[in-house]
Write a structure and sequence with these properties.
The structure holds three protein chains of three kinds. Chain A has two domains: about 1-220, 3-Layer(aba) Sandwich (Rossmann fold), CATH 3.40.50.300; about 235-350, OB fold (Dihydrolipoamide Acetyltransferase, E2P), CATH 2.40.50. In chain A, about 25% of the residues lie in helices and about 35% in strands. Chain A contains eight helices and 20 strands. In chain A, the strands form four sheets. A six-stranded mixed beta sheet of chain A has the order 6-7-8-3-9-10, with helices on both faces. A five-stranded antiparallel beta sheet of chain A has the order 13-12-11-14-20. In chain A, helix 2 (about 90-100) packs across helix 3 and helix 2 packs parallel to helix 4 (about 135-145). The longest helix of chain A has 18 residues, at about 165-180. In chain B, about 75% of the residues lie in helices and about 0% in strands. Chain B has helices at about 1-10, 15-45, 60-70, 70-100, 110-120, 125-135, 140-150, 165-175, 175-190, 190-200, 205-235, 235-240, 255-265, 270-300. In chain B, helix 13 runs antiparallel to helix 14 (about 270-300). Chain C is built from 14 helices and no strands. In chain C, about 70% of the residues lie in helices and about 0% in strands. Chain C has a single domain, classed as MetI-like fold (Orthogonal Bundle), CATH 1.10.3720. The longest helix of chain C is centred in the last third of the chain and has 33 residues, at about 260-295. Chain C starts with about 25 loop residues before the first helix and ends with a helix. Classes of the chains: A alpha+beta, B mainly alpha, C mainly alpha.
Chain lengths: ~350, ~300, ~300
């Protein structure tokens, strides 16, 4: 449906997008996620036709689109600020693009009313954007995209201007819209919760490079490298410096403080190579059932969230480790807690940051 | 590859054609009505052009004559500098005083602001110059008022060379409104909590004015001073109308621009007048440059 | 990262919330002072209007602002006091001013749009040139312009007064509009691009409709400055039937001035009247324009 082949973007000497390959299937919901400055918005704007492509090829439906005008690409875009025309009514905002394309009046009217119906904004059609709430503006922005009947919807951080409650509500509605219309959607966000909840496939970007792509659970369960591991998941994954007591074959013996345990690995490594062990706070085990013993955690600070308890502490060798415990636990700073982990909840990264365990 | 990229940049992003299409009127104006004339006027200032015969190259003769052998030039400079150095500070002090008074949270602010602004909107018109001519005439309004109030028989302020220029200074000060509005906007930018902090520190209103208001307002004062100075150098209409275009009596209101006008358009000494024009431009440029140089010593910027 | 759409508007800062004049006495004193200033400022103007309604015999003997037996005699004497009726001169002024307004608004908006929204080679260079002309006094170009218009046969027509304005020679207005256009979110342009608009359609359908405050400011100031202008008509217009109202008034000073002050004041009042009306209608716009851009008048 849509494919990017070695797509590049340069601003002068600065390379912002460095050879992205990506192919998106029809009807797929793809989320670009990454820290600010990673190039995710630029990539989206290149697909939209708002930013010229410096190198590589963009094709939609098998046709090269690099030089095609934005309005001819069969796409629609919802902007971060909504970019509603302040001087036009809601109706006019939605019909403007169709009028520019010289569509018949009756057809325009039919489309606008249908979109308004889907989004439940029919009573607002004669209003101006400034008379609308944030959530209503958001709907109009989506409506303006729907009337174009595009093959691909592009969303550029569309929820970042909404308050927390509305953000959750609109997130659900966008997911529902995708289910209803079945169009391809590409969605940019820096919010990993949005990424996890909306995406069929997440594309994690950093510094203009695709770090990993896959289903949300793939990425959560098997982050390809230390960056993805740290970026996806909240609270952030714990990273512990470990030594490789012995390596070779497809298993390695890992040493952390006094404890030793074995992990299956994909490649061999030097005994001198510094390794990192990643464990998500929610995967730290506190009972005696752990497969891997991490020793005793000296608790420094505790946060009670009601449904969860978060403990911040240090291991015997001084490394920081955070733990998320279900429910309300009676622990406080100064306590110590025996901690461990299951082998399946551990991630091993080599000195190059790449995932080592399988 | 770079060429292909540039081509696609143009395809997607608006292009040279649209850019120059929209810029065309300005570009024509700039080339034909600004850049060309600037160059031509510099060339003319080095000739004896009079409009009748082709210009003859005379080198810097016009400039040397202006500097060494033109008493009216000296007069025009004296008159203009007197006018600038008197009218600009007076106008600014008055504008600042009224702005500070208006900023005290009085009701009716918008009324006073509008009324005080009116004179600067219409002050440059011929009608006001006509009015001024009458007000300061021998049998004019001022002398009638002086007669009624004090029994004093005043002279004709306009016809007297020792007072005529001051009537024009007064006319300039009368138009303090636009400076006042800019001061008022500047005063509004000073956060109230600074004053509240100063009050807690025990600073009295007068001290607050000199230690807080004035320093924080220096950027606005600087801006007003530069704009008003440039404008004062260019003053023309009032002097022309009040003196019947002569700059009289006995050249006491011979503004530089008036002298320039006479040389160019009554004597048709285009070459000489061009030299005069360039000297005016240089004076204004020098004044502006000096202001900016001095600014670092007295203008307070946040950053 | 998050940028909220702001309606581009010229903001006038809100009044300080607390009234910081302490005692009622000081408050009364401040009011008295302001009223005194108001009186001194407006007295000559009001007296001019009053005098235009008086018989001539009374003008030089009355400092009061209320004419005893108001009469419009002076107006009819003045209106036909020149060899050409003032109606002709007012029409001339109106024509020139309206043409200048149209020319300024159109050409300056186009230039400002190119400078702020279009990417073309040389844009930075031309923009720097435009800023350079902001400070350039007219005297630097005056004489060659005059000679050029003379050679074109345009002297003694309204062309030298109007055609340059269609070429955006008032860099100040270009600058004013550049500042305003920069406040219009770029995402609106991009939304329009997605909606299939080219540069011209974005200009006409998005930028201009959103810029009415700055266009109106430029239009009103253009009109007032042109209406008031004396120097350019003085140089370029020779025949009395082509004069503007300002030129006519100044000619009237010579012909009738010393003898018929009443008629002179009547015509003075009339030439100021259009500006006064615009002032009443667009007072807020004018004052905000001054406050935010620091125009000199």
């Amino acid at each position: 449906m849509l494919s990017l082949t070695q797509v590049q973007k340069r601003f002068g000497a600065v390379e912002v997008i460095r050879g992205v390959d990506l192919s998106i299937a029809s009807g797929e919901f793809v989320v670009f996620v990454g820290p600010s400055g990673c190039g995710k918005s630029t990539l989206l704007r290149m697909i939209a036709g708002l930013e010229p492509i410096s190198g590589g090829e963009l094709s939609i439906g098998g046709i090269r689109m690099n030089e095609t005008a934005a309005s001819q690409r069969g796409i629609a875009m919802v902007f971060q600020s909504y970019a509603l025309y302040p001087h036009m009514s809601v109706y006019k905002n939605m019909s403007f693009g169709l009028e520019t394309a010289r569509m018949r009046k009756a057809e325009i009217d039919r489309r606008v009313r249908k979109a308004a119906d889907i989004l439940q904004i029919t009573p607002l059609l004669e209003r101006k954007p400034r008379q609308l709430s944030g959530g209503q503006r958001q709907r109009v922005a989506i409506g303006r995209a729907i009337v174009r009947d595009p093959k691909i919807f592009l969303f550029d951080e569309p929820l970042s201007n909404l308050d927390a409650e509305l953000r959750v509500q609109t997130r659900v509605e966008i997911a529902k819209l995708h289910a209803d219309i079945g169009a391809t959607m590409i969605y940019v966000t820096h919010d990993q919760v949005e990424a996890m909840t909306l995406a069929d496939r997440i594309v994690v970007l950093r510094a203009g490079i695709v770090e990993q792509q896959g289903t949300p659970l793939d990425i959560y369960n098997k982050p390809a490298n230390r960056f993805v591991a740290g970026f996806i998941g909240s609270p952030k994954m714990n990273f512990l410096d470990v030594s490789a007591a012995a390596g070779g074959g497809d298993a390695a013996t890992i040493g952390l403080g006094a404890s030793r345990f074995s992990m299956s690995i994909r490649r061999g490594f030097d005994a001198s190579e510094p390794l990192t062990l990643g464990i998500r706070p929610e995967h730290v085990v506190t009972g005696g059932t752990a497969e891997i013993d991490l020793g005793t955690l000296a608790i420094v600070h505790v946060e009670q969230l009601g449904g969860q308890t978060i403990a911040y502490g240090r291991l015997a060798d001084g490394q920081a480790l955070n733990v998320v415990l279900e429910g309300q636990r009676r622990i406080s700073a100064g306590d110590s807690l025996p901690v461990g982990a299951m082998a399946g909840g551990c991630h091993l990264f080599g000195s190059d940051g790449l995932r080592l365990n399988s | 590859m770079p060429n292909a990229a540039a081509a696609s940049a143009r395809a997607v992003q608006g292009d040279d054609l649209a850019g120059y299409g929209f810029l065309l009127p300005w570009l024509l104006g700039f080339l034909l009505l600004t850049l060309g004339p600037v160059a031509a006027s510099f060339y003319l200032s080095l000739t004896d052009y009079s409009g009748l015969s082709a210009p003859n190259w005379v080198g810097i003769e016009n400039y040397t004559r202006i500097a060494t052998d033109d008493p009216r030039f000296i007069t025009a400079m004296t008159v203009t500098f007197t006018f600038v150095l008197l009218s600009v500070p007076l106008k600014l002090i008055f504008a600042l005083g009224v702005a500070v008074a208006l900023n005290k949270g009085l009701t009716g602010l918008s009324f006073f602001r509008a009324v005080f602004y009116l004179p600067s909107l219409i002050g440059g018109s011929v009608a006001i110059a006509v009015l001024w001519r009458q007000v300061f005439a021998g049998d004019g309004l001022l002398n009638q008022a002086l007669h009624t109030l004090f029994g004093y028989e005043g002279p004709s302020w306009i016809a007297n060379p020792s007072t005529s220029l001051y009537t024009l200074v007064l006319l300039a000060v009368w138009q303090f409104g636009s400076s006042m509005i800019i001061f008022l906007a500047g005063l509004r930018q000073i956060p109230q909590d600074i004053y509240e902090a100063a009050s807690i520190d025990g600073a009295q209103p007068v001290r607050q004015f000199f230690k807080i208001t004035l320093p924080l307002l220096t950027p606005v004062i600087f801006f007003n001073a530069v704009i008003q100075t440039i404008d004062a150098f260019k003053a023309f209409t009032s002097a022309f109308v009040i003196s019947d275009g002569t700059g009289g009596p006995i050249d006491s209101t011979l503004f530089y621009t008036l002298y320039l006008y006479q040389e160019a358009f009554t004597n048709f000494r285009f070459g000489y007048a061009s030299a005069l024009a360039w000297i005016l431009v240089l004076i204004i440029a020098a004044f502006t440059a000096l202001s900016f140089l001095s600014a670092r010593y007295w203008v307070h910027y946040d950053d | 990262m998050t940028e909220v759409v702001r309606a581009p508007a010229i903001a006038f800062p809100a009044a300080p919330s607390r009234a910081d004049i302490g005692s009622p006495w000081r408050r009364a004193f401040a009011y008295a002072l302001l009223l005194a200033v108001t009186f001194v400022l407006l007295y000559p103007l009001l007296w001019m209007v009053a005098s235009s309604l008086r018989p001539d015999s009374e003008i030089f003997h009355s400092t009061s602002l209320i004419p005893q037996a108001p009469t419009f005699d002076a107006y009819s004497r003045g209106w036909n006091g020149l060899s050409v009726g003032f109606s002709q001169l007012f029409l001339n002024s109106l024509l020139i001013s309206v043409l200048v307004v149209i020319g300024n608004v159109m050409s300056c908006a186009m230039a400002a749009y190119a400078f702020t929204r279009l990417r073309f080679r040389g844009r930075g260079f031309w923009f720097a040139m435009m800023l350079g002309t902001l400070m350039l006094p007219q005297h630097a170009v005056l004489i060659p312009q005059y000679i050029m218009f003379l050679k074109l046969g345009w002297v003694n027509t309204i062309l030298p007064l109007t055609i340059p304005k269609f070429l955006a020679v008032d860099a100040f207005f270009v600058f004013l509009m550049v500042q305003f256009f920069r406040g219009i979110p770029r995402e609106l342009d991009e939304a329009a691009v997605m909606d299939g608009c080219g540069p011209l359609r974005i200009f006409l359908k998005v930028i201009l409709p959103l810029s009415t405050p700055v266009l109106a400011t430029a239009a009103v100031f253009s009109f007032i400055w042109t209406w008031d202008d004396f120097f350019a008509p003085l140089i370029y217009l020779n025949d009395i039937e082509k004069y503007t109202a300002q030129l006519g008034l100044r000619t009237f000073v010579d012909s009738a001035g010393q003898s018929d002050w009443g008629a002179l004041f009547a015509m003075s009042t009339l030439t100021v009247l259009p500006i006064f009306i615009l002032f009443l209608m667009f007072q807020r716009l004018l004052i905000e324009g001054i406050a935010t851009t620091g125009m000199k008048r």
